[in-house]
Write a structure and sequence with these properties.
Layout (H helix, E strand, L loop, with lengths): L1 H10 L8 H11 L5 E4 L5 E5 L9 E6 L4 E7 L5 E6 L4 H4 L3 E4 L2 E7 L8 H5 L6 E4 L5 H5 L7 E4 L4 E3 L3 E4 L2 H14 L7 E6 L7 H10 L3 E9 L19 E2 L11 H13 L4 E2 L10 H5 L6 E9 L7 E4 H17 L3
Parallel strand pairs: 3-12, 3-13, 13-16, 14-15
Antiparallel strand pairs: 1-2, 2-12, 4-5, 4-9, 6-7, 6-9, 7-8, 10-11, 11-17
Helix pairs in contact: 1-6, 6-10
């Protein structure tokens, strides 16, 4: 069920600040298993499930619902949409990609190569040179489809391919959401809060609010993280690799993970035959940065799936890693009751 849930989640639109459809799906799926559910003013979905006993320290798991996307900033006289990115998107991966705005399809395009001023312009076009072609030929026609401030998502097509790989948009962090939905079906060892957070991609905003309300003492962040295992990239800069197990980071750009919890999670993986790896560079960031600094401070630890082409229409991960992520998260909750 994990992979089917992941596929459904990845196909839903949920650009930062507009996570409604993802949140509605999560509430419908989590509802039968929840003892309490809160949707706060920022759009976080906070789910509490009682376990066999209360943990020694209040426990929260967190995963973010939002994804990167586009936001419309202008309409040209000849019917093209000007836009900016919501969240961090590499402009190179966006060229020629399909986007959907209010149900209408468009294509991200750039001025023709023979108009580029230099090879640098041709390889990495500037944001102001990009536009979305929605097949309109005048401003009025385009305005019937999109208005300034409307958001768009990348192509929702999900595909399994090759030796157990899955391609989709928004695997970061719908995989974390899918893992938590599966955990909610379990008979839990301890009382647990599950925070499905909003607006992570634009500054971990939802996590700050969620952590303030729940006030966890220990938090496990379940994520997707960037892999750079591409040809021509030195081994020391490949960060992590799909298919080599759960990623357990010791530090990223936003947080230093608790050393005792890091040791606990790595030992759980090793004792239970779960392949794991850590990042070979200090890179990226997660909701851990906000949660760690909330209230009087929270001990945080992270587990993640390695994702190629993260923040793009074609995120790629290994299904075996996704399944291992669920197994390790399940063990982490179990050990809180021992």
């Amino acid at each position: 069920m994990l992979i089917e849930t992941l596929k459904r989640l990845c196909a839903l639109p949920g650009v930062s600040g507009m996570e409604n459809e993802v949140a509605d799906y999560i509430k419908a799926e989590a509802g039968p298993y929840a003892d309490e559910m809160i949707t706060d003013s920022l759009g976080n979905v906070l789910v509490f499930k009682k376990g066999r006993k209360a943990p020694e320290k209040r426990l929260m798991l967190a995963a973010h619902m939002d994804e990167v996307g586009v936001i419309i900033t202008g309409i040209t006289d000849d019917g093209y949409l000007k836009f900016d990115f919501v969240g961090g998107v590499d402009r190179r991966v966006a060229l020629g990609q399909r986007v959907f705005i209010n149900g209408a399809a468009g294509v991200i395009a750039v001025k023709a190569a023979h108009h580029a001023k230099s090879s640098g312009d041709e390889n990495v076009p500037k944001q102001e040179d990009l536009y979305i072609d929605i097949g309109a030929d005048k401003r009025e026609e385009a305005g019937k489809i999109a208005a300034l401030g409307d958001v768009g998502t990348f192509d929702p097509q999900v595909m399994e391919f090759g030796d157990g790989f899955l391609k989709a948009k928004a695997i970061d962090d719908r995989i974390g959401c899918a893992v938590m939905l599966e955990l909610l079906k379990d008979e839990l060892a301890v009382d647990t809060w599950f925070a499905f957070t909003a607006q992570e991609e634009v500054g971990t905003r939802g996590a700050s609010v969620a952590a303030y309300r729940i006030n966890p003492e220990i938090s496990l962040i379940v994520e997707g993280t960037t892999a750079a295992d591409m040809p021509g990239v030195p081994q020391t800069k490949r960060i992590c690799t799909p298919g080599k197990g759960v990623v357990i980071p010791f530090m990223d750009k936003g947080a230093i993970y608790d050393r005792e919890l890091f040791a606990l999670v790595t030992k759980l993986a090793e004792d239970n035959g779960i392949a794991w790896q850590t990042k070979r560079m200090v890179a990226g960031g997660t909701d851990a940065s906000a949660i760690q600094r909330s209230g009087m401070g929270t001990k945080v630890v992270g587990i993640a799936a390695a994702i190629r082409n993260i923040h793009s229409p074609s995120c790629v991960g290994k299904i075996s890693d996704f399944e291992a992520l669920l197994k390790l998260a399940r063990l982490f909750i179990k050990v809180q009751g021992e």
